[in-house]
Predict the structure.
Amino acid sequence: MAIGERYDAIREAALTTFARRGFHHASVREVARAAHLSLAGLYHYVGGKDELLFLVLDRGLDTLLTMADAALTSARTPETRLLALIRTHLEFGFAHADALRVVNRDWELVTAAHRAEVVARRRAYMDRWLAVLAELDPHGRGERELFSATNLLLGMLNGIAVPRFLKTADDARALAAQIGALFLYGFLERSVDDGEPATVGGTHDG
Amino acid sequence: MAIGERYDAIREAALTTFARRGFHHASVREVARAAHLSLAGLYHYVGGKDELLFLVLDRGLDTLLTMADAALTSARTPETRLLALIRTHLEFGFAHADALRVVNRDWELVTAAHRAEVVARRRAYMDRWLAVLAELDPHGRGERELFSATNLLLGMLNGIAVPRFLKTADDARALAAQIGALFLYGFLERSVDDGEPATVGGTHDG
DNA sequence: TGGGCCCGTTCGAACGCTCGTTCGGTCGGA
DNA sequence: TCCGACCGAACGAGCGTTCGAACGGGCCCA
């Protein structure tokens, strides 16, 4: 097994273990077992538990940012850019449910050694949303208000971007359209002509 | 000190400790220290760590349900009932930030002995929302769809009902009106005449 | 009335366990 | 022979929980 694959296996083991048990409750022994390695064998590759968390967070945020940027470049208008971000976020939640769970729940638990980098990644992602909302905003809202609106929207997305509501890729797409319409109604204070009614929670299981 | 006060002190100590550190990372020793009791002294009153969590969850959910029901009885129309629920949820998040944090983050960690009761309380709270949304619904949505809509709304509320966005009681009131208008736009697919525009994130800090 | 006793309250100390981490060593390919 | 890969075993610390004992105010019976 190549060394790169070994690292991939370790990161994957840490990801699923942390997602299932939570960072604090998960033990390095569990991660080692999931990676088909002994405890000491795992320590040959990583410096400690904190580094395992950083590996997971770093890769997760990197994937999320890459997906978001790819979606942004292929969208022309501010409205479609917002819808693209929403859809990307939900698709990330569908394709990488474990990663989103760890990123949202355990990112604060990373120690000072890696915190700055994680915070910077999260901030970079937030900036994508802020830029789009600033483009869209018809009221000249200040930075603080746009920041609040972003948190509102992300809170909504993270509340719904769980496996329970994302059973298929179609769920993610349908929900994205619905949430986008829902949010734009309120944010722009006018109807969005996206050609379909803004029903909430139509196709997925409850 | 009366025995009731002792239990109150223990519950309060467990609440703040669990909220700050998370259930798993918090130790019974910390709770004992916060309750001005020795470790063994604390065990004289409670059976174990799990019971401490149950004490906190039970009281928190009880308060939330009581506040919600009180708000519901004084609202006449479905719209105002929904706004009352939203406002109550945010006011609870403002007045009992620690309790909301534990209820949202750690409720799954309660062991089987107390799980049924906690689940029942959560379900009872959810039922309040479902009943109001069913009244409001102009499209004859099914139970599954209404359940999804409720989760969407609660996800949004829990994302925003944190101390960062709730610095004063006015923040809670203003945000409630804004979120209510935002959600009703999408849910009813028509403007809600509540006499003020649905700006997002107006008065609170970001 | 007073001495002895009970019992709720509280504690120090320890139990067994799991944790994150380290160390000394073996093994196999270059 | 060297060196990276990998492991068994152990370390010290902290965990949840338990135990035996000490304290102290109220009660019974002489």
In short: Chain A touches chain B at residues 22, 24-25, 105, 139, 141, 143-149, 151-152, 154-160, 165, 178-179, 181-183, 185-187, 189, 197-202, 204-206 (CB under 8 Å). Residues 27-29, 39-40, 43, 48-49 of chain A lie near DNA strand C (CB under 10 Å from a C1'). Residues 178 and 199 of chain A are 6 Å apart (CA to CA).
